[in-house]
Description:
It is a single chain. The chain has helices at 13-36, 44-67, 81-105, 109-132, 144-165, 171-194, 212-216, 221-235, 238-242, 258-270; strands spanning 4-6, 71-73, 78-79, 134-135, 138-142, 196-200. It is mainly alpha-helical. A two-stranded antiparallel ribbon has the order 1-2. Helix 1 runs antiparallel to helix 2 (44-67) and helix 2 crosses helix 8. Residues 252-290 are annotated as: Disordered. Residues 10-199 form the MHYT domain.
Amino acid sequence: MQGTVDGFSYGLVTPLVAYLMACLGGALGLRCTTRSMLVAQSWRPGWLALGSAAIGSGIWTMHFVAMMGFTVRGTPIHYDKAMTFASLAVAIVMVGIGVFIVGYKGARGTALFTGGTITGLGIASMHYLGMASMRLDGKLEYDTVTVGISVAIAMCAATAALWAAGQVRGFLWSVGASLVMGLAVSGMHYTGMAALDVHLHGTAAPTSGESPAALLAPMLIGPLAFLLLAGVVVMFDPLMVMGKPATVPLEQKPGIPAHTRSGVRHSAHRLRFRPRRPVGHSRSRTPQKR
C-alpha cells in the first residue's frame, strides 16, 4: 500500500528554520576555515577541526529540523538513536577530511576538487544514513536518478563553499557564501526527499504515537549548544570578523607556489647592504714612496 508522505506538516516553519541552521553552521565553518589560513601552522589544526564540527553540526541539525515536518499518514515514525548520532559522526568526519585538505593544500585545483567531493559525499551520506534511522511500518524506496541529482548538488555546494573559504576576502564574502551553501544543502535535502516513496506493510494498526518533533527535539540540544558556543568564538575574535591577516609571512599560507616563496626570500637577500669597512683599515690606492 502506497503511503501518503507529507514533508511540510508544519508549513514553511521547518524549511525556514532548517535553512537558517544550515546557514549558521556554514558561516561558522567557513570563517574558521578562513581563520586557519591566517595563523601559524601550530594553530591551524584546531581552527580546521572547529570549522569541520560547525559545518557537520549545522547540516545535521538542518536535516533533522526539516524531518520534524515529515509525516507518513497511517503509521507513526520513530528514530533509532544510535544510527541518528552515527549520521552526525559521519558528517563531521567526512566534512573534516575535505576541510583539512583545502586548509593545508589550498582552495584550488586538485585539492579543491578532492576536498569538495569528499565533503559533498559526507553531506549526502549524513542525509541518507539519517533517513535509514527512521523506523515505521513500511519500506522506503528511492528513485535512483533523483538520488544522483541530490548527491551532485551536495558535491557542487561543498566545492563552491570551500573555494569561497579559501579566498580570504572578508566577513561579507563568507556570509554570502554561507547563504548559498545553506540554500544548496537545503535543496539537496528536499531533492533527496522527493526521491522517496513509502510502501506501507499494513501489518500494524495505525496509532498516533509521538510526533517527530517530540522525538527529535532532545537530540538537537547538543549540536545547537555547540553552534552557539562556536558563534561566541567567532564574535570575540577580531580576525575572524575582519578576515584580514595580521603579520603572517607569505610562505606560511597554503596554496602559494614554491617559486613565489623563494623569490620573496631572494629579493629580501638582494636588498641587504654590505657593511662599510672601518676607515682606518681601508687601503690607499696612492702608491707609497719608499
